[in-house]
Automatic annotation (TrEMBL):
Listed name of the protein: Biopolymer transport protein ExbB
The organism of origin for this protein: Lautropia dentalis
Self-association state and partner proteins as the record states: The accessory proteins ExbB and ExbD seem to form a complex with TonB.
Top-rank lineage group of the source organism: Bacteria
GO cellular component, one term: plasma membrane
Transmembrane portions of the chain: 24-48, 137-162, 182-203
Any single GO BP term: protein import
Domain spans labelled MotA/TolQ/ExbB proton channel: 96-214
Pfam families, alphabetized: MotA_ExbB
Length: 244
């Protein structure tokens, strides 16, 4: 009577599973590796870029002029969304000042403000796409992993019941063990889906917060560059990339 309790378990499930059960298990393990890799990589990238953004914005709002900002960017490089928008906007202003609307290309047509607006909008769109890379994978894992696990459970229960019917014995110990073993796949599916869903929600909220702050910063940057103003007297209006 105690033999099924000793032999049944996860190890027995792995050894006795057929090709479909093992294939589903491999798929779930692959989903877990991919989702955790995305969460860790994007999380570390976010914290590094946030630290660079804090340094850049502090420098930006304390700088005496846009020329000082340009020198800082040339010295430290571009490591976050805010400095990238600023660097491209400064390059757009310098490029238009050299070529004007007579460059012979559609991208250079219009007024200086139009050209600057298109440049900033292009960079903002590129930053949004970059921030959202991988989120669809996390959403897919969170939505489909439980169903892979459920399918594995149904498949395992089916084979367990077939084997019980062929053996001719239908006692509780003969039914509960194989059916309980088949539920392992449901648990694995939920274990894979939960981190993916939590990671997706965290990353999506983080992207919304950063995007809103970046839009506000881009508007102020456009105002400074299009009007030719320096940053003197504007040090109180700071756009910090910190979450509430």
């Amino acid at each position: 009577m105690n033999e099924p309790q000793q032999t049944l378990g996860f190890a027995h499930f792995l050894l006795s599973g057929d090709a479909i059960s093992k294939g589903l298990l491999i798929i779930l393990l692959g989903m877990s590796v991919v989702s955790w890799t995305l969460i860790l990589v994007k999380g570390v990238t976010y914290f590094l870029r946030r630290r660079h953004a804090e340094r850049f914005l502090k420098m930006f709002w304390e700088a005496p002029s846009m020329q000082a900002v340009a020198r800082d960017i040339a010295s430290h490089g571009v490591h976050d969304s805010f400095s990238r928008v600023t660097a491209n906007a400064l390059q757009a202003v310098q490029h238009y000042a050299r070529t004007g609307a007579n460059g012979g290309r559609m991208a250079e047509s219009g007024s200086p403000a139009d050209f600057l607006t298109r440049t900033i909008k292009k960079v903002l769109d590129e930053e949004t796409v970059s921030a959202e890379n991988g989120l669809s994978v996390l959403a897919t894992v969170g939505a489909t992993a439980p169903f892979f696990g459920l399918f594995g459970t149904v498949w395992g229960v089916y084979h367990a019941l077939v084997n019980i019917g062929l053996s001719g014995s239908g006692g509780l110990d003969q039914v509960a063990g194989p059916v309980g073993e088949a539920l392992i796949m449901t648990g694995l599916g939920l274990a894979v889906a939960l981190p993916a869903v939590i990671g997706y929600n965290w990353l999506a909220r983080r992207n919304r917060v950063v995007s809103a702050k970046l839009d506000a910063f881009a508007f102020e940057l456009f105002t400074f560059l299009s009007s030719g103003q320096t940053l003197s007297g504007h040090a109180g209006n700071r756009t910090e990339p910190k979450e509430a």
